[in-house]
Amino acid sequence: MTSETFLWHDYETFGADPRRDRPCQFAALRTDAELNVVGEPVVWYCKPTDDMLPSPDACLITGITPQTADRLGVPEPEFANRIFEVMSEPGTCAVGYNNFRFDDEVSRFMFWRNFIDPYAREFRNGNSRFDLIDLLRMTAALRPEGIHWPEREDGSPSFRLEDLARANGFSTENAHDALADVENTLGMARRVRQHQPRLWNWGLGLRARHAVEQLVEKREVLLHASSRFPASQACIAPVLPLFRHPAIKSQWLVWNLREDPAPFTEFDAEMLADLYWTPNADLPEGLKRLPVKWIRTNRSPMLSPTGVLDAAAAERTQIDLDQADAHALKLADDSAFVAALLEIFTSPRAAESFDADTALYDGFVPDSDRRVAERIRNQPPEQAAALLSASPGPFSDERMAELLLHYAGRHATSSLEGPQREAWRAYRRRRLIDDPELASVQLPGYLARIEQLRAERPDCAGLLDELAAWPAHIGIDGL
Q1: Of 16, 206, 357, 460, whose CA is between 20 and 30 Å from 381?
Q2: Is 395 contained in some domain?
Q3: Mean pLDDT calculated for residue range 68-95
Q4: Beta bridge partner(s), residue 94
């Protein structure tokens, strides 16, 4: 039987959008189940392609310019394959800090762009994934002893890794360096395992989807730690599972029982839908969003029975279980209201992707296309470019056909024939200059932000000079 190991990992990226921005650095440490380091750490850089501009602010945070990544890095297909291989080692639990919401999305969209199965490394060969941040939120709320919990100016807890590391005596000198962040994540995990071993084991047990399903299927009041709950309330709330998503079987809708459902029961399904989909800032005065959220049973949601809430934790988290039970009873007695909530999600929303690069979640790829993708992954990009001229094309999924042009354009430009080269040039122009849906950073805003930062950060003149030179380096003038 394969022994379980943890792969503690982190990305530094050229922006904050994991779908559209690109990674520049990856670091990882492997430990055994007792969190002892095994093997050597890895630190890899990724060469940027000529269809992206970095966020100047992101570069100031990491200190990594595209020129640095270009000099130290490998092409993205090789970078992606290296990461896929270390994450796919049998028995690996890939774990990070806020990785479910960011780093895992970086991995998935990078694998997708490079014809690697985005999900395989997450479950095959006894593999799994875990995110430390919500376990820390639950620990701070329910069992904080043994760990120092930094506070924001308003007195609420801070879960910024840098703040936690500093409060617990770890080095923050190289914060936002991928390996330094990995080491601090591992340090915080060791603290939880040492001081709250039962909670550590409970949290890891929630990696098993069936364990989560057993909790939510009872439709009983549970405690749930999540960033969706405000830090002023310790990022935790009593919740009641209402129903499984009608189309996505791994998701359950839960009601935040800090909120009384009564004011919402007077609304019809259409109004409830507006209260769900409309951002708070856009709602009319006097209305607020539905106090519901989705729990993903395949994403280790931090749930626990209410019996673990002792008097000290109840005071610390401002949770009144009697009130929560009363609110839960109202929901249980109003099946028409719950049915109206379900109606919000019975009609599928139209796919929102404007670009094959970000269309990963628009549907699963046919098996025949996945086999072609696997062949592309294992051959030089120049051979992949030759497939663009095949008739019929190699893919039945239109997204994959478009990805092939992007892949060849980025990594085998000289192999493109005339019409393909022109299509790639037009796409690059849209990403870099014309279409804000395709990229989070485009040339006019990029140059303007650099000039703003010159005034704000004269100490970073050299880095800003490098950023100013990047557009010419990738030939934007020729577009």
Answers
A1: 16
A2: yes
A3: 98
A4: 7, 129
Q: Is residue 371 part of a domain?
A: yes
What is the average per-residue pLDDT within 77-100?
Answer: 98
Which domain covers residue 384, as residue numbers? 356-478
Q: Which phi and psi angles does 394 have, rounded to 5°?
A: -75, -15
* Joined tokens for residue 338: 């719950």
Cα distance between residue 248 and residue 7, in whole Å? 28
Nearest to 181, CA basis, from 48, 302, 29: 29
Counting Cβ atoms within 10 Å, is residue 367 exposed (0-12), middle (13-18) or buried (19+)?
Answer: exposed
What distance in Å separates the CA atoms of residue 289 and residue 35, rounded to the nearest whole number? 41
Name residue 240's amino acid: L
pTM for the structure as a whole = 0.95
**Per-residue pLDDT reduced to its tens digit, 296-318:** 999 999 999 999 999 999 999 99
Share of the chain above pLDDT 70, in %: 99
DSSP bridge partners of 8: 29, 95
Are the beta carbons of 292 and 251 closer than 8 angstroms? Answer: no
Q: What is the DSSP string of 238-256?
A: EEEEEEE-SS-TTEEEEEE
- 401 in a domain, yes or no? yes
Domain count along the chain: 1
Measured in whole angstroms, the distance separating CA 446 from the mean position of its chain's CA atoms is: 24
Query: Strand order in 236-244's β-sheet?
Result: 292-296, 251-256, 236-244, 222-225, 302-305
Residue 108 lies in a domain: no
Tokens matching residue 401: 């056909």
